Amino acid sequence: MTTPDDRMPEQPDQPHDSAQPDPAVSGGTPAASAASAASGASAAVGHSGDPATDARPKRTLSRRGLFGLAGAAAGGLVVGGAGATAVAQATASGTSGAADSYAFFGANQAGIVTPAQDRLHFAAFDLSSTASREDVVELLQDWTLAASRLTQGLDVSEDGAVGGPSLAPPDDTGEALGLPAAGLTITIGFGPTLFTSRDGIDRFGIADKRPAALVDLPHFSGDTLDDAQSGGDLCIQACADDPQIAVHAIRNLSRIAFGRASLRWSQLGFGRTSSTSTAQATPRNLFGFKDGTANIKLEQPEIVDDQVWAQKTDGAGWMAGGSYLVSRKIRMLIENWDRVALGEQERVVGRDKGEGAPLSGGTEFTEIALDKTGDDGRSIDTAAHVRLAHPSQNKGQQLLRRGYNFVDGNDELGRLNAGLFFIAYQRDPRTQFIPIQRQLSQNDLMNEYIKHVSSGIFAVPPGARNADDYIGSTLFG
Amino acid sequence: MRKTHLAPAAVGGALTLAVLLSGCVANNPASSALTVDITDDGCNVSAATAASGAVKFTASNKGTQVNEFYILADDKLRIVGEKENITPGATVDYVAQLSPGTYYTECKLGMVGAGIGTSKFTVTGDEVALSGTDKEQSDTAVTNYVAYIKEQTDGLVTNVAAFTAAYVAGNDDEARALFPTARTNYERIEPTAEAFGDLDPKIDFREPMATEDGIPFTGFHRIEKDLWAPAGFTPSTPAERQELADGLNANVKQLFDLVREKDFTVSLSDISNGAIGLLEEVATSKITGEEDEFSHTDLWDFQANVEGASVAYGNVRDIAVSKGDDGKKLVEKIDKQFDALNKQLAAYGSLDAGFVTYDQLSTQQVKELSDGINALSEPLSQLTHTVLGIAE
User: Fold this and answer.
1) Which end of chain A offers a freer environment for a tag, N or C, measured as fewer CB atoms within 10 Å?
2) Is this complex's ipTM strictly greater than 0.85?
3) Domain count along chain A
4) Would you give the DSSP letter of residue A359?
C-alpha cells in the first residue's frame, strides 16, 4: 500500500488506497463475488455506460471554481470497473458481502437495492433561510460531483486531503486516506419541506412538483417523536462497510453544504438489520433475532419494479426510477426485552430465535404459513410481528427494508439508548409504509418493547445518468 | 481570548510609512486634485466628491499642533489612506487610489483621540484596477491595517478608562452599561493583541483559563464577575477594584505603546489570517456563550469580531481580486456572506443601540448564527491562499 506521499503528481485521481488491483484477489470471497456479479446485473439496474467514463467528473462546479481546483477536470485515471473489484478484499472490513465499490451514475441511485453494507451514517439537512433555487441546484451539483468521487474511493476533489496548496485548508478532511471505497453508496433524498416550507412557502418554485406520494406521515399509535430529530429538507444516506468511510462522506458533504444547508439531525448505524441480496447472510437486530429474512431482494427484479421504483405513470414523472424513503428511529427497550422468556420472545416475533424459522414450521426461508401449526405445536400468534407485517395481511404490499442497529450511549437511567434505525424504500408510502405501520402500531405484540422516536420521509429521485447530470436534475432541470 | 497565541507579528525591518505611501503611488498621475485645510478644530476638504482613480489631497496644517489626515471606508473603521505627522505650517501631498464608493475623511489632532471634521466623501466612476507591484500592494495593505490597529488601541485606552472609572467609583449601573463597548476595540483586533503573548492573558482571560495557566485572574472578565456577581461570590473591596482597574488600564496602555513602536508591523498573512482567526474566535468561544459568562454580552463581542474580520479582509480584498477569476469568485462569495451575517446580527441590535443578551437567544437562533459563521468561514478560510499563494 502506498502512502499519499508516494502519489505521482500526474495521478491525482488515485483512490484512497492506491494499491494496484491484483487479479488473483479481485472479487475476494465467494460471497463478495456473488454480490459483485449480482450488482453487475441488478444492483446496477440501468446503470449504463462505461463506468470508466461515467465516473469521470467533467463539469466545473461552483466549489471547484471557488477553490480554483485544477483546471483540467479529470487528468487522472478512474478507478477500476465500477461496481466491482479493484481493491483487494483483504482490505475490506465488512462482512456484508457488498462489493468494494459501486457505480455512482445510473438510472437509479445506488444504496437502495445495493446489497446492504454493514455501516450507516444518515443525515438530514435544512436549507439555509437565504438559499435560492440556484443555491439548491448548485448544492446538488456539488454533492453529485463529490459523491461520484467518494464512492469510487477518491478524495472529495482532485486536490484532496494533501494535494492542495499549503496556505489553504485541504478540500478533503483526510480521514479516508489509505482506505478503500468500502462499498460506499451515497443516496440523496428530498423531504416534503423542500417543496413547501413549514410556513407553507414555496421557496424554490417546486411546490406543484411535490409528488402526491410524498405525504406528511400521519401520527401512528404510540408515536413519541422528537421534532428536532425528524424531517428535513434533504437527506443523505451514506452506507459502507467501514464506518470511517461513511462518516467521511457525511462530514465532507456537510462541509460542502455550509452556507446553503446545515445538518438538522444525523444518525450512525453500526450493523445492518436487513439483507437486500440473496447472497447475504441474514443479520440480527438488537432483539437478537434475524431480521430481513423476507425482505425484497435485488434478485427479484419484478418485485423491485413493482414495489420499490416509482414509475412514470405514478404521477410525478420526475420521480420515475426513484423511490420513497421512510426513516423511523425505533428505540428498543432492550433491558425489558432481555427479561422476557425465550418462548414469549419467539411468540412476539413469530419466528424461532436460533434459526429464524417461522413458528409455523420449516427453516429460515420456509414460507410463513399463517394458519398452520408447526411440528412442535406452536403457531404464529394473531398479533405476532411477522403476521401483521406479512404481505398477505397488507394487500400484497411490501417494503425494501434497509435498517441499521444503533446505540447512542445510554440514557440518564443507565439504560442503553439502543434500537433500530429503520429505513424502508417503496414505490408509494400511501399504500405501503402507512397502512403497514398503522396495522403494526395498533396491534403488534412488539409494541411493548419499542418506541418510535424520530421519523422522516423523503423522495429519492432517480440517479444521475452521467457526469454531466446531477441528482435532482429531473426536478430542477 | 484564546489559548493558542499566534506567532508575534513584528518583523525587524523598520518601515517608514510615508516612504511606502509615496512609493505606492509614484507612477500614477492624479485624476483629481483637492485641498485639505487642517486647523486644530477642523478638517475641510475642498470637495465632497471625486472621480475614481488617483485622488491627490494637498493638505495644509494651519493649526498649532501636529495633525493627521485619514480616509476611512464606509464602515468608518477600515483605513483606506492616511497621512500622519503633518506639522504646523506644513503642506504635504498625498495620493490615494480610490474606487467608487462612500468614504469618510477626518483629521486627528495630536495624532490621538477622536477624529475631527469627519465628513462623507463620495467617489464615483469606474472600478480602479489595483496597480503597482505585489510588493507595493502588500505594503499599502499593511500600512493601512497598522494604522487601523493604532486607531483601535487609541479607542481602547479611552473607553477602558471611562469604564474602569465608573467601576472604581462604584457606579455599577454605568459600569455595566460601558462594559460591552469597552471591549469592542479589543475584540476588533484580537489576533494582534494575542500576538503579544503575555498581554492577552492579563487583559482577556476567562477564569478557567487563568486557573489552568496558574496566573492571577485579572482583566475584563474579572471585573465582569464583580459587576454581575454570581451567587456566593464575594465582590471585590474598593481597594481591590482600584487595583484591577489600574491593571487593566496599564495593560491596554502597554498594548497602545507596543503597536506604536518603531519596528511594529504585521505581514500580509497576519492580516488575512487575522480575518480568518477572528471568525474562528466567534465559532469557538462566542457562539457557545462562554466568553461573557456573567454578563451575557457575547453579541457585542460577536459583532466586534465580525467587524474586525471585515476590516482585515477589506485590506486584502483588492489583492484577492487582482488574482484573477478565482480571486473574484472568492470575494464575491465572502462579500455575500459578510452581508448575510451582518443582517443576521442586526436583527439582535447594534453596537450603538445595544444587543439582546445572549441568554435570551433560543437554540434555533444560535444555530442560525452558527450556520452564518460557517457559511462565511468556509470561503474566508481560502483567503490567505488566494492572497499569497496564487501567482498573477
Assistant:
1) C
2) no
3) 1
4) T
